[in-house]
User: Fold this.
Amino acid sequence: MLLGERSHAAFRQDGNRKPLPRIGPVIAALRYPLLLASALVSGSLAAQAYFAHGDWAAACDASRSCTALALPPANAAEGMDLVLLRDGGAHDRVVWIDLMPRAGLPLDLHARLFADDHPLFPIGDAHILLDAIAEGRADQLRITASEEIEALLGALRKASRIRLVAEGRSLGDASAEGASAVLLWIDERQGRVGRENALIRRGPVAADRDFPPPPRPPEIPHRRAVLVGEQEVASAALAAAHARLPQGWCEPLSAEEREDRVWRLSGVDRLLVEIDCARARDGRITRWFLVERGSAEPLVFRRPAIDRRQGGTVALEALVEAVFDPMRGEIRSWERLRSRDDCGRVSVFRDDGAGFALAEDRYLDRCRGARPEVWPLLHSAAPP
Assistant:
C-alpha cells in the first residue's frame, strides 16, 4: 500500500470532509492528491523538476530538456498561451516558441508581435504550425528563426506582456510576468548559469566546457489493442482481476454504474483489464490488471515526484479519470488539483510489451484555461 491506515483514518475522521466509505488508502489518497507526496520510492526519474513564478511555469525532464508556459495576463481581453522548448545539450538553444491565441487565428494572417507597445517582428501564414492545421486547428504559431527567437527572448526579460496584433486588433496577450525568474531557473537546471549561452545570467564560460551530454529515455512505440468481444474470455479475465483486489479496495458500485472493460493487447495472450473502482470528487478511479494465461497481475504506474526536495518517483496503484486508447496502446489519466479545475497533472502510460511505462507527464498548478497539451513537460519518452 502507498499510504498507511493511519493517514486513511485521519481523513475519515475529519469533520470538515464528507466521510469516506470503507475503501483502501490508495483510493483515499487519490481523492486527496496532497497525500501522494508521501508515496515516494527511489527511481531513475529523479532529475525531473517543476517551477512556477508569476504567470509562468516550467518543467525539465530527465534529459535536461525544459519547456516553459506563459499564461495570459489576468486582465487580457483576448488570451494567448506562449510555450518554449530548450533541449539539454551543450550547444542547444531554444528550439521553438509557440504562440496560441485562444480565440483562434484569421485566414490569410498578416500580424505583428509586440512587447507592450514596442513592435518586434511580423507574423504571417508561414508561422502557422502545419501539424495544427492537420488536426483541424488554425490556432498555433511556431517561431523557429534564431533572430526572431532572440528578439522575443530579449523582450520577455523587460516587457510586461507579449501581444499579437492584426489590422489594429489584438488577437491575444501572453504575460511576461515571471519570465525572467523561470528562464533563470531553466538556466540553473540545465547548468548554464555563467555560460555564454545562458538565457538570463550569461558569463564567459564556453557552452561545452565540462558539459555532459544529456540522456534520453528510449522511445516507446505504439502498440494497438482491441476490445475483447468474446463474453467468456472477458468474464474470465474480469474474474481473475477481481480476485486480486484486496477486500475493501473498491466501492460497491451497481451494475449500471460499473464500467469494467477488457482489451486484447499486442503479443500472445495478453489482456488489459480496467476495473471501475470508485467515484471521487475528481472523477472515476480505476484499477488496472494484466492477465496472461489466466493469471492477473495488478499494474503499478510510476512517475516523477513533483516535490523538488524529495525527488524520486511516485508509485500509483490506481488512476484518476483514466482512459485507455486502443489505437495508441496507452492509458491517459487526468488528476485535477481541485474538482472541475483546468489544471493538474496529465500522465500517459504506454504498453511497452511487459507492462505500462510512463510515456508523457505534464503538470500545471495555475488554473487559467490552458489546455493540457501545452502544460510543462516533466517526462517524455520521445522528443516533444
Observations:
- Residues 1-46 have pLDDT under 50 and may be disordered.
- The two ends are 33 Å apart (CA to CA).
- The chain has six helices and 24 strands.
